[in-house]
UniProtKB/TrEMBL annotation:
<dbReference type="GO" id="GO:0003682">
    <property type="term" value="F:chromatin binding"/>
</dbReference>
<dbReference type="Pfam" id="PF02820">
    <property type="entry name" value="MBT"/>
</dbReference>
<feature type="compositionally biased region" description="Basic residues">
    <location>
        <begin position="600"/>
        <end position="614"/>
    </location>
</feature>
<feature type="repeat" description="MBT">
    <location>
        <begin position="167"/>
        <end position="271"/>
    </location>
</feature>
<feature type="domain" description="FCS-type">
    <location>
        <begin position="68"/>
        <end position="103"/>
    </location>
</feature>
<dbReference type="InterPro" id="IPR012313">
    <property type="entry name" value="Znf_FCS"/>
</dbReference>
<dbReference type="Pfam" id="PF21319">
    <property type="entry name" value="zf-FCS_1"/>
</dbReference>
<keyword id="KW-0479">Metal-binding</keyword>
<dbReference type="GO" id="GO:0042393">
    <property type="term" value="F:histone binding"/>
</dbReference>
<dbReference type="GO" id="GO:0006325">
    <property type="term" value="P:chromatin organization"/>
</dbReference>
<keyword id="KW-0863">Zinc-finger</keyword>
<feature type="compositionally biased region" description="Basic and acidic residues">
    <location>
        <begin position="1"/>
        <end position="20"/>
    </location>
</feature>
<dbReference type="InterPro" id="IPR004092">
    <property type="entry name" value="Mbt"/>
</dbReference>
<feature type="region of interest" description="Disordered">
    <location>
        <begin position="584"/>
        <end position="633"/>
    </location>
</feature>
<dbReference type="GO" id="GO:0005634">
    <property type="term" value="C:nucleus"/>
</dbReference>
<protein>
    <submittedName>
        <fullName>MBT domain-containing protein 1</fullName>
    </submittedName>
</protein>
<feature type="region of interest" description="Disordered">
    <location>
        <begin position="1"/>
        <end position="55"/>
    </location>
</feature>
Length: 633
């Protein structure tokens, strides 16, 4: 994807019709021709006088005029009463805002025309309209100036009055000097694979909020800082002045590559705060932007394409049963938000029994998957598909790596270390309970298994959530021993001997570590996998090869979760805003102290289950060395 565009200086001639790279001279001749030929009144027979070349020129609704420089001033249309920039007005005497008003004035008496325009459905003009008729021009301009001042004060008040419960990524990052994980870390997210070299210094065209013109105008800004999808922008011409810097989502509809205004006929207007800084804005832009980088011309199209998702509502899938992890059930796609699926279990009549996951989650599969590999499956009481429901095509699901189980392979009873799906902050001593087809394994957490195996869970042999014996020891991670195991500190050699078991061979595990780009301290948006409908403000607090320790800002460390670097449950800063998903802000102190939600209580209860069995002094680094029987490692 092309990511840069050279911005070159064009000819300064304005005698012939042409477009400028910055849209500042677009349509000058056409406007002059129109105004010289379409007027029919004595007041508007003369052509618009040539505009001084030292002033910036912009286009607005087919008219071209200079931006106010303190000398041009304002004017009021004698036909409709509209107040605007004087140079934008029609005719030499600047009495009318448009050709239409000039014509109307010449064909009707001034008083009759104004009254006719002010009356609505036969009603007499309002008191405000009558005052406008009698006000002299100076009084109108003074009133307009006061009105603009009032609007500015209101805007400042609104900006300062941030809701107490509101959350802004921009403020959060600025006030704490945080760094966010780049979009390229998230291959499954929109633009994750085609972000290109969008970085600090890239120029874009954005709406100009520092302007009092009645129409929407634009100006050029540069990226000062990137935080995921969000960018801190500064208008060109402000140099080191950050007073009007603002955050916005780069993938939003109001951000465009430089040159978009010219091709779209939109006006470029310098911000009011710096309008007197330069007399020739075109020359300034040419100097500043020549050779600069901007967004690719097809950027918005790429954003749109990357947010098209193949899963549709009413598709049927097989998904893990959240009440019995050992089996799957049929569920129906109820909604798709940013690639995340809200699945409703097929037997749920009121559609409240649901499960959230990403479309690339390893927890969902095509219909028939469970039978094909020998996985437990809860048959639905519904004997046939409901009207409109249809099976999701198998090719839509994430493919796992093919494995060769013909040679040395995992066997039932082998020991390993695994992330506990019911307590994702813990890596536990685990056992392979059943070997399924196509490389899938049923695994149980030692010391906390149900007699019927209802809490076994399925991991693929290439899953980044299972590890060889000794992984935690080597990487100084606290290993959670079996519940009730009294011989602490836990030592694998002793445990294997006591249980008369062997460790799964190291060579069978996935040792691939991608160049993921994450660093400790980076901010992101992450799914709380214990309550998967929630996406929260989070931080990467530790990195072990491809394994990330995710901390939910505002919550205690016991709620942290171990997640793979390529997990589809991690998203760039700004993902929720881009997709319309609700972001959970950091929990305030009061909420942490008085937390009463069921999801957090469940997690805390599960955490307490292991609390008495965790080593509290020294950590993993102080444990005895892992001594295993020959051939195990």
């Amino acid at each position: 994807m092309e990511s840069t565009k050279e911005l070159t200086e064009h000819s300064s001639r304005v005698e012939r019709k042409r477009q400028d790279s910055f849209g500042m001279f677009d349509g000058y001749d056409s406007c002059s021709e129109d105004t010289s030929s379409s007027s029919s009144s004595d007041e508007s027979e003369e052509e618009v006088a040539p505009l001084p070349s030292s002033l910036p020129i912009i286009k607005n609704n087919g008219q071209v005029y200079t931006y106010p420089d303190g000398k041009s001033g304002m004017a009021t249309c004698e036909m409709c009463g509209m107040v605007g920039v004087r140079d934008a007005f029609y005719s030499k005497t600047k009495r009318f805002c448009s050709v239409s008003c000039s014509r109307s004035y010449s064909s009707n008496s001034k008083k009759a025309s104004i009254l006719a325009r002010l009356q609505v459905a036969g009603k007499p003009p309002t008191k405000k309209a009558k005052v406008l008729q009698k006000q002299p021009l100076v009084a109108k301009l003074a009133a307009y100036a006061q009105y603009q001042a009032t609007l500015q004060n209101q805007a400042k008040t609104k900006a300062a009055a941030v809701p107490v419960e509101g959350f802004s990524w921009g403020n959060y990052i600025n006030s704490n000097s945080f760094t966010a994980a780049p979009v390229t870390c998230f291959k499954h997210a929109p633009m994750g694979t085609c972000w290109g070299d969008i970085a600090e210094g890239v120029r874009v065209e954005v709406p100009n909020s520092d302007c009092s013109l009645p129409t929407k105008v634009f100006w050029i800004a540069g990226i000062v800082k990137l935080a995921g999808y969000n960018a801190l922008l500064r208008y060109e011409g402000f140099e080191n002045d950050s007073s009007l810097d603002f955050w916005c989502n780069v993938c939003g509809s109001d951000i465009h590559p430089v040159g978009w205004c010219a091709t779209s006929g939109k006006p470029l207007v310098p911000p009011r705060t710096i309008q007197h800084k330069y007399t020739n804005w075109k020359a300034f832009l040419v100097k500043r932007l020549t050779g600069a980088k901007t967004l690719p011309p097809d950027f918005s199209q790429k954003v749109s394409e990357s947010m098209q998702y193949p899963f549709k509502t009413s598709m049927r899938v097989e998904v893990v049963d959240k009440t019995h992890l050992c089996r799957t059930r049929v569920a129906v796609v109820d909604s798709v938000v940013g690639g995340r699926l809200r699945l409703v279990y097929e037997e749920s009549e009121d559609k409240t029994d649901d499960f959230w996951c990403h479309m690339y989650s390893p927890l969902i599969h095509h219909i028939g998957w469970s039978r094909s590999i020998g996985h437990r499956f809860k048959r639905s009481d519904i004997t046939k598909k409901q009207d409109g429901h249809f099976d999701a095509p198998p090719h839509l699901f994430m493919k796992v790596k093919e494995v060769d189980a013909a040679g040395e392979w995992f066997k039932e009873g082998m020991k390993l270390e695994a992330i506990d799906p019911l307590n994702l902050s813990a890596i536990c001593v685990a056992t392979i309970r059943k070997v399924l087809a196509d490389g899938y394994l049923m695994i149980g957490i030692d010391g906390s298994e149900a007699a019927d195996g209802s809490d076994w869970f399925c991991y693929h042999a290439t899953s980044p959530s299972i590890f060889p014996v000794g992984f935690c020891e080597i990487n100084m991670i606290e290993l959670t021993p079996p519940r009730g195991y009294a011989k602490l500190p836990f030592k694998w050699f002793d445990y294997l001997r006591e249980t008369d078991s062997i460790a799964a061979p190291v060579k069978l595990f996935n040792k691939e570590v991608p160049n993921h780009g994450f660093h400790v301290g980076m901010k992101l948006e992450a799914v709380d996998l214990m309550e998967p409908r929630l996406v929260c403000v989070a931080t990467v607090t530790r990195i072990i090869h491809r394994l990330l320790r995710i901390h939910f800002d505002g919550w205690e460390d016991e709620y942290d979760q171990w997640v793979d670097c390529e997990s589809p449950d991690l998203y760039p800063v700004g993902w929720c805003q881009l997709t319309g998903y609700q972001l959970q802000p950091p929990a305030p102190q009061s909420s942490r102290d008085s937390q009463s939600s069921s999801s957090k209580q469940k997690k805390k209860a599960k955490s307490q289950q292991y609390k008495g069995h965790k080593k509290t002094e020294g950590g993993a680094a102080g444990w005895g060395g892992v001594q295993l029987p020959a051939g195990n490692l």
